[in-house]
Design a protein that fits this description.
Distance between the termini: 44 Å
Order of helices and strands: HHHHEE
Strand order of the largest sheet: 1-2
CATH architecture of the domain at 30-97: Orthogonal Bundle
Number of helices: 4
CATH topology of the domain at 30-97: Arc Repressor Mutant, subunit A
Structural class: mainly alpha
Radius of gyration: 16 Å
CATH class of the domain at 30-97: Mainly Alpha
Shape: globular
Strand content: 5-15%
Largest sheet: 2 strands, antiparallel
Amino acid sequence: MEERLGRLLSMTAKAAREAFDQQLNEVGSSLTTYLILLHTAYYPDLSQRELAGHLGIEGSTLTRQLDRLVADGLVRRGSHARTGGCRSSSSRLTARST
């Protein structure tokens, strides 16, 4: 019974993720972009390393995504508050993204 329930939960999560991604793709976005923007809004003082950890993605993947969001005017980068910018940065939403 537990194995069947786990499989059903996994299949349901996959279907929900695919449906959500499809809806976002129709407006030129993706689930990854949505999650980055959401986490950036909720946790504006996270370093990029911390943000990547929250999202469960590699730092280099986050950097590429943030580069695109900065270029689109949705996110701005700045010095990380707790480290004073010492090789660390944080991201904040711009007025355009809210």
